[in-house]
Amino acid sequence: MRIYMFALFLIVSCLPARSQETVAKTESVTVRSGQSVRLGGNGIWSIDSDTCQFIELQMDTLVHPSMGRVVGRLYDGKIPATAINQSCVGLPIKAFQITYTANKKAKGTDRVMLQARQVNHDRRTFTFEYVITIE
């Protein structure tokens, strides 16, 4: 899955600008066979912590799921309280929601790894790994 969007904004919290920095996050979730679960909590987003402006990202799937599928969509959200610049909190944003759907009759552990790179900013890379237990 390769996604290019002008309004795709990523990271769970806003970090001060550091060139070429890599940030990694691992999350474990559980889902029933044939059902769906959101990955990344309340969405994945990125803003410039100084200006509260959105940052364009390129998102790639590094490890594809073997027992399900991943779908992403943009949705209207608000900058959460985890933003470094508290004056950004509550401002409207487009956030990216990732949903994993387990195949019917699947059981066991699946894994997805996504990577997002800032396109026109300081080019930081963010890697998200999801370990999915299918019951």
Set down the secondary structure blueprint.
Elements: E1 2-5, E2 22-31, E3 36-44, E4 57-63, E5 68-78, E6 92-102, E7 108-118, E8 125-134
Structural account:
This protein is an all-beta fold. It has a single domain, classed as Immunoglobulin-like, CATH 2.60.40. The chain is built from no helices and eight strands. Strands 1-4-7-8-2 form a five-stranded mixed sheet, with no helix packed on it. The two termini are 25 Å apart.
Characteristics of this structure?
elongated; disordered N terminus; mainly beta; 5-stranded mixed beta sheet
Described by its quaternary structure, the protein is single chain
Number of domains: 1
CATH fold description? Immunoglobulin-like
Low confidence ranges:
1-19
Task: Indicate the structural class.
Answer: mainly beta
Order of helices and strands: EEEEEEEE
Helicity range of the residues?
Answer: under 10%
CATH architecture: Sandwich
The count of β-strands is: 8
Tally the helices.
Answer: 0
Shape annotation: elongated
Compact overview of the structure:
This protein is mostly beta strands and 135 residues long. The chain has strands at residues 2-5, 22-31, 36-44, 57-63, 68-78, 92-102, 108-118, 125-134.
